[in-house]
């Protein structure tokens, strides 16, 4: 069994300040973890993925995430928010060898203010 | 958007009518998926395909059927639409069973 919890449904930051979107997971097997971003009226786009290599994963647009097994967390961060980062973000878990049986979190809406 | 086209982009239909949504890909990927997105639920898998004529159910498959007669096309059919099937439907593709998914832009379906 696997599940993922996004701890905040909405996050608001000022442009130029750091972004932190929190995700906790559970998985009976070795997990693979992803962050996807969805802009309005668009499909989801892969930001980054963790598949048991380096625990600090760098993605597109300056985002990164750190896999912490002891905390069962995979939080998404960015040092400095840009207006174009405003979107909905999804944390996703599957397990190695599980095919693409993905489990999605319920999403975090990121608002970036001037 | 990784060569994925969903049609139609918007549809309004009445309860009890059949509806077919189409997903067309130009990437020659083996795996194709149908998800629905609803507020508070994230995305949930309806059906997926791992090859031509090879399909399997996801977690919310009741009321839906799929067909894949060609690599590039994956059809989702609602045999008799209900209001609970009002949602945004996303098609996704992947090259293998463990590679990341690429999503289409979605179809917004309203059942009145």
Overview of the molecule:
The complex is a heterodimer of chains A (114) and B (112). Chain A is mainly β. Helices cover 0% and strands 56% of the residues of chain A. Chain A has strands at residues 2-6, 10-14, 19-21, 23-27, 31-38, 44-50, 56-58, 64-68, 73-78, 87-95, 103-104, 108-113. In chain A, the strands form three sheets. In chain A, strands 2, 5, 6, 10, 11 and 12 form a six-stranded mixed β-sheet that branches. In chain A, a hairpin with a 5-residue loop joins strand 5 (31-38) and strand 6 (44-50). The mean pLDDT of chain A is 92. Chain B is an all-beta fold and 112 residues long. Helices cover 0% and strands 58% of the residues of chain B. Chain B is built from no helices and eleven strands. Chain B starts with a strand and ends with a strand. The mean pLDDT of chain B is 94.
How are the SSEs ordered, and which strands pair?
The complex is a heterodimer of chains A (114) and B (112).
Chain A: E1 2-6, E2 10-14, E3 19-21, E4 23-27, E5 31-38, E6 44-50, E7 56-58, E8 64-68, E9 73-78, E10 87-95, E11 103-104, E12 108-113
Parallel strand pairs in A: 2-12
Antiparallel strand pairs in A: 1-4, 3-9, 5-6, 5-10, 7-8, 8-9, 10-11, 10-12
Chain B: E1 4-7, E2 10-13, E3 19-25, E4 31-38, E5 42-51, E6 54-57, E7 64-70, E8 73-78, E9 87-94, E10 102-103, E11 107-111
Parallel strand pairs in B: 2-11
Antiparallel strand pairs in B: 1-3, 3-8, 4-5, 4-9, 5-6, 7-8, 9-10, 9-11
């Amino acid at each position: 069994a696997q599940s993922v919890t996004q701890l905040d449904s909405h996050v608001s930051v000022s442009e130029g300040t750091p972004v932190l979107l929190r995700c906790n997971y559970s998985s009976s097997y070795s997990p693979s973890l992803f962050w996807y971003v969805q802009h309005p009226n668009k499909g989801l786009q892969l930001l980054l993925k963790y598949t048991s290599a380096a625990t600090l994963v760098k993605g597109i647009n300056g985002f990164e995430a750190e896999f912490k097994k002891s905390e069962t967390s995979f939080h998404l961060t960015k040092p400095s928010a840009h207006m174009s980062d405003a979107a909905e973000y999804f944390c996703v878990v599957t397990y190695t060898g599980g095919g693409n049986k993905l489990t999605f979190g319920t999403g975090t809406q990121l608002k970036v203010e001037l | 958007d990784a060569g994925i086209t969903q049609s139609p982009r918007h549809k309004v239909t009445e309860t009890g009518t059949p509806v077919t949504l189409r997903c067309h890909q130009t990437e020659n990927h083996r795996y194709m998926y149908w998800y629905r997105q609803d507020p508070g639920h994230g995305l949930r898998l309806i059906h997926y395909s791992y090859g031509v004529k090879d399909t399997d159910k996801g977690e919310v498959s009741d009321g839906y059927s799929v067909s894949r007669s060609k690599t590039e096309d994956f059809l989702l059919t609602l045999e008799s639409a209900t209001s609970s099937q009002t949602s945004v439907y996303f098609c996704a593709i992947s090259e293998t069973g463990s590679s990341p998914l690429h999503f289409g832009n979605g179809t917004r379906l309203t059942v009145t």
